[in-house]
UniProtKB/TrEMBL annotation:
Transmembrane segments: none annotated. Residues 124-324 form the ATP-grasp domain. It holds the Pfam family Dala_Dala_lig_C. It is found in: Cytoplasm. Its EC number is 6.3.2.4. This is D-alanine--D-alanine ligase. The lineage of its organism: Bacteria, Pseudomonadati, Bacteroidota, Cytophagia, Cytophagales. GO terms for biological process: cell wall organization; peptidoglycan biosynthetic process; regulation of cell shape. It comes from the Bacteria. Mg(2+) 1 binds at D277, E291. Pathway: Cell wall biogenesis; peptidoglycan biosynthesis.
Length: 327
């Protein structure tokens, strides 16, 4: 008998548009011989399933079920592809834990922590061979904090919402005159902002997942952007950046990265598939951790999909591994 899987998408943030694109790919790729898939759209005050006829069927939040005609549909598991809140910050995970439905992403605590870039860096900071750029975590946009940044950090700087994704609200600051506007832009997106010193290096993004009981590190993708940094436009506009999979790394670099990534996965108690962004510093080759994404994009051109194909695995089989790991 087929398992019933709820494919969760939508969201409460600007990342919802990317979530819908990811869900469209997952929906058509999942092995339908093994699973019946129901796409559940989650928006503020509006959780629903769209029937074949276009009827909007509300989700019963008491048990996360839907009713199609006289049939009540309950789910064996959830394939979470909701980027941002509430799918990536632990809110949905906590809800599913309370009603006892398994899901393919990190648990409530790990999701909440990894959504916060500053807290994540503090946790992984003691991993051997991993380096962290000097940074400040700000909780309000005040003149005192502007002075603190100027006194404690060195230009250039990256300013980013601490709990955001897809590089929304992110800026690179080269002069102190640019700092106030960059902080204001980031605080529009979040009540916490991370300000960190720029690390000059080659940028990479690498997938890692647990399937069939073991952790697999995928080949890294090298990001060569025509923009100053890998911002929203570079991530989601064709031709703005070059993505090389596998990335250009020496044998030593590949070995070192493959030692570090499973330690990050284990230290943060991750589940399912994650993506880690990092720099290899130009002068030293040191591994500088940027962030971890616990609900990585699953569009046809997404980095995870590229990396899975690079090791000869069909994306459909990859999704099956993620789903079966829940049970």
């Amino acid at each position: 008998m087929k398992r019933k899987i709820a494919l969760v998408t939508g969201g409460y943030t600007g990342e919802s548009v990317i979530s819908l694109k990811s869900a469209a790919v997952v929906e058509k790729t999942i092995d339908r011989e093994l699973y019946d898939v129901y796409k559940i759209l989650i928006y503020p005050g509006d959780w629903h399933f769209l029937s074949v006829s276009g009827e909007k069927i509300p989700v019963d939040l008491n048990d996360f079920s839907i009713k199609i005609g006289d049939d009540k549909i309950t789910f064996d598991g959830v394939f979470n592809i909701l980027h941002g809140s509430p799918g990536e910050d632990g809110k949905l995970a906590g809800y599913f834990d309370m009603i006892g439905i398994p899901y393919n992403t990190c648990d409530q605590l790990s999701s909440a922590i990894t959504m916060n870039k500053g807290y994540t860096k503090a946790i992984v900071d003691d991993i051997e061979e991993l380096y962290i750029a000097k940074s400040l975590q700000l909780f309000e946009n005040s003149p005192a904090n502007v002075l603190r940044v100027e006194n404690e950090l060195t230009l250039p700087l990256f300013i980013k919402p601490n709990n955001g994704g897809s590089s929304i609200g992110m800026s690179k600051v080269k002069t102190w005159g640019e700092l106030p506007d960059a902080l204001e832009k980031a605080f529009v997106e979040d009540s916490q902002v991370l300000v960190e010193e720029f690390v000059s290096g080659r940028e990479f993004s690498i997938g890692c997942y647990k399937g069939k009981g073991q952790i697999t590190v995928l080949p890294a993708t090298e990001i060569v952007s025509s923009k100053e940094f890998f911002d929203f436009e570079a991530k989601y506009t064709a031709g703005v950046c070059e993505e090389i999979t596998p990335g250009r790394q020496t044998e030593e670099e590949v070995g070192r990265v493959n030692r570090i990534i499973p330690k990050i996965y284990a230290k943060l108690n991750c589940k399912g598939a994650i993506r880690v962004d990092y720099f290899l510093q130009h002068e030293t080759g040191k591994f500088y951790f940027i962030e971890v994404n616990t609900v990585p994009g699953q569009t046809e051109t997404s980095l995870i999909s590229q990396q899975v194909r690079a090791i000869g695995i069909d994306v459909r089989d990859f999704y099956t591994e993620l789903i079966e790991e829940m049970f």
